[in-house]
Amino acid sequence: MKSKILFLILAFVAMFSAREAFAWGRPAHSIVGYIAEKHLTPEAKAKCHYYLRHTLAYEASWMDDWRYSKGFNGTAHWHIGYAYPERQYTGDYRDQILKQESVRKSAAYRINEFHDKLRTSYKEMPDSLVATRIRFLIHMLGDMHCPAHVAIPVDDKPSYEETTVYNRYRLYYKGKKYSYHMMWDRITAILAPKWTILEWAEAVDCYTDKYREKICRGDANDWLKGVSKETLRSYKLIPRDTDVAKLSDKERECLADMTYQQLAYAGYRLAYILNDIFKE
């Protein structure tokens, strides 16, 4: 009996730890979904509720929950925005060269693909397929706007040994070992630990209609270029061995502004895509 209880405890810890390993984390993905839903047209909102039976925020981490399940093995690279898909990338180790097809058909490619296919033919698809593709879009838009999910080739500067597609170079938080990826995973708790998801969404959703229209121009490939610039800027703001808790007020403000912007942009662009898919 004791061994069974111990097994269940360990299984729970493993599951929780695995979920914590995904950048943005559940709170940030939910914030993106909440912002997007706020900016849906009545038609798009009704369609999303019909197919999902839940809010966008509720479904925001579905892709992480299922990524290691049978049938989802080929979706690992869909969580990543490769800044230069024509370049060569390594995986967790320098001698692990990624397949060019995986690099090319990653987050930006899939976002554009699902956007186009749903827009032109969602009415002919089974409801379950429409729902699944909407869930993918919700999560991929969030991931692609997270600097920890944007892959810069390791021969670029700054070149860190641990800066692979998963951006795991070493940081600290209050003296404890962290990583760049882990920092972004817990960014909402680092910046405003007492805020609820709704308070975060209300604070982040502060752009004008005209500006929202501007940042939604183009497609996912264009958006990824902008996020890549923010990723490189974040490397300079938070270099290796930085203790994030000891950032100056100015540095912390820059980190907060970057976080607010990326969460808002992801939410607005998700709403733009869903509105375009379901416009009558």
Describe the structure.
The chain is mostly helical and 280 residues long. It has one domain: P1 Nuclease (Orthogonal Bundle), CATH 1.10.575.10. The chain has 14 helices and four strands. Strands 1-2 form a two-stranded parallel ribbon. Strands 3-4 form a two-stranded antiparallel ribbon. β3 and β4 form a beta hairpin. α2 crosses α14, α7 packs parallel to α14 and α8 packs antiparallel against α14. The longest helix has 29 residues. 39% of the residues are buried.
Protein topology:
Layout (H helix, E strand, L loop, with lengths): L1 H19 L4 H14 L3 H11 L3 H4 L2 H5 L14 E2 L17 H5 L2 H15 L5 H18 L5 E2 L18 E4 L2 E4 H6 L1 H5 L5 H8 L4 H7 L4 H18 L11 H29 L3
Parallel strand pairs: 1-2
Antiparallel strand pairs: 3-4
Helix pairs in contact: 2-8, 2-11, 2-14, 3-14, 7-8, 7-13, 7-14, 8-14, 13-14
Question: Short description, anyone?
Answer:
Helix content is 59%, strand content 4%. It contains 14 helices and four strands.
Q: How many extended strands?
A: 4
Identify low-pLDDT runs: 1-21, 158-163
Main β-sheet, spatial strand arrangement: 1-2
Mind telling me the CATH class?
Mainly Alpha
Overall, the morphology is globular
* Continuous helix count: 14
What's the N-to-C terminus distance? 59 Å
In CATH terms, what is the architecture? Orthogonal Bundle
What is the residue-averaged pLDDT? 86
Which superfamily, in CATH terms, is the homologous superfamily?
Answer: P1 Nuclease
Number of domains: 1
**What fraction strand?**
under 5%
Major sheet summary line: 2 strands, parallel
Would you list the SSEs in sequence order as H and E?
Answer: HHHHHEHHHEEEHHHHHH
How much is the radius of gyration in Å?
19 Å
Q: Which class of secondary structure composition applies to the elements?
A: mainly alpha
CATH topology: P1 Nuclease
Helix content: 55-70%
